[in-house]
Amino acid sequence: MAWTTFPFAQTNTDIGGTIAKLLTGIGLPAELALVLGLLTPMLVVVLSVLTGVIMAVWGERNWSGRMQQRWGPTIIGLGGSIQGAADGLKLLVKEDIMPVKADPWLFTLGPAIVIIPVFFSYLVIPFGQGMILSDISIGIFFIIAISSISPIGALMAGYSSNNKYALLGGLRAAAQSLSYEIPLALSVLAVVMMSSSLGTTEIVRQQEPLGIFSWYIWRQPIGFIIFLISALAETERAPFDLPEAESELVAGHHTEYSGMKFALFYLSEYANLILASLMASVLFLGGWSFPIPVEMIAKFAGIDPTTPVFQVGAALLGITVTILKATFFVFLAILARWTLPRVRIDQLLNLGWKFLLPVALFNLLLTATFIQGYRSFFGG
After folding, report:
1. What is the pLDDT of residue 33?
2. Contacts of 265 (CB under 8 A, 6+ apart)
3. Which of 20, 180, 323, 344 could pair with 233 as two cysteines, CB 3.0-4.6 Å apart?
4. 243 CB neighbour count, 10 Å cutoff
5. What is the pLDDT at residue 210?
6. How far is residue 62's CA from residue 211's CA, in Å, rounded to a whole number?
7. Most confident of 40-44, 172-176, 227-231
């Protein structure tokens, strides 16, 4: 396909290595170029996630204000944009208070262990054709494995605070994560079986040939619904915000935190929401792929798809499409927050273990049967 002529459209993209080679070419020492090549992608991830979180917070306040017919967040301060900056500045200058009987090491490590795995997960998310920081062949496995670390940080934060509400919140976070990680992983595994790949880039490529008709949402409707519910529970968003239920646990494992440590928990919540939205876009809505294949658009418009200008433009539009699809899922999460009441902890666990898990297993069996039947009748 003509897409492969685009310089970043190759598999196993190594943006860090490319940057290191460019820096070496302009005269920097090889060791310094290698370090800068490794640090640059991480800096890009951090800045991109922070930008996404700022936009998500601003969007949630605006949409929530409109749903509740409140004028404040939609008008005050350039459409509400300054309110987020004011909150960030407030948290930055607030005193970092630690309870007298808290465990200082665990209390400090908790927020870091919650947020760091989220940033690492973004390394294997393709934002566009070839626009991925680390195109490893086991990207899906990497995301599922590293995201399992975050609940440990929540449990550490709750235990180390020496506060009964914080401890209950940490235990709830661990139980909730364990209950919904398995259905989520099984729904993703069904997509992996259909694409025969654990690589995120390859999964998107499998959904390109026929445009919208190739997207896995049509072949995995059950898996898509399971993923949406499980991802919402994993991100601890309403109606599954049991670990920090204000009416029961003050703020859950966040209760004793202040200043930037509290801001890290807040940041991780929105970073997780954006990550889940990007994963839904990549796994079920074709990632960067257009509803109509770009080759068909180029042919209809009489444009040569092999020209660099067209390919660069298509790549930039692909990034835009990915972000728009993810924004749609962020909006769904915000809509659910202001529409659905919070569930009880027993209802939460029953939904995960007694409903989603059996349905996810059935969906996996159905997918395996479909694949085997297809190969038996059509070969391949």
Report:
1. 79
2. 111, 114, 115, 157, 253, 254, 257
3. 180
4. 25
5. 87
6. 33
7. 227-231
pLDDT value at 365 more than 50: yes
3 state SS for the chain: CHHHHCCCCCCCCEHHHHHHHHHHHCCCCHHHHHHHHHHHHHHHHHHHHHHHHHHHHHHHHHHHHHHCCCCHHHHHHHHHHHHHHHHHHHHHHCCCCCCCCCCHHHHHHHHHHHHHHHHHHHHHCCCECCECCECCCCHHHHHHHHHCCHHHHHHHHHHHCCCHHHHHHHHHHHHHHHHHHHHHHHHHHHHHHHHCCCCHHHHHHCCCCCHHHHCHHHHCHHHHHHHHHHHHHHCCCCCCCHHHCHHHHCCHHHCCCCHHHHHHHHHHHHHHHHHHHHHHHHHHCCCCCCCCCHHHHHHHHCCCCCCHHHHHHHHHHHHHHHHHHHHHHHHHHHHHHCCCCCCCHHHHHHHHHHHHHHHHHHHHHHHHHHHHHHHHHHCC
- Whether residue 107 contacts residue 157, with contact meaning beta carbons closer than 8 Å, is answered with yes
What are 103's two structure tokens?
A: 């465990």
Cα dihedral across residues 211, 320, 119, 97: positive or negative: negative
For the chain, give the longest Cα–Cα distance: 72
Residue 167 Cα distances to 24, 96, 156, 268, angstroms: 51, 20, 9, 19
- What does the pLDDT look like over 105-162, one tens digit per residue? 999 998 999 999 999 999 899 988 878 888 888 999 999 999 999 899 999 999 998 8
- How far apart CA 294 and CA 201 sit, in angstroms, is 17
Under a CB-based contact definition with an 8 Å cutoff, are residues 243 and 154 in contact? yes
11-48 per-position pLDDT tens digit: 445 566 777 778 788 887 878 877 777 788 778 888 88
Residue written as token pair 């792929």:
289
pTM over 0.85: yes
CA pair distance 153, 119, nearest whole angstrom:
14
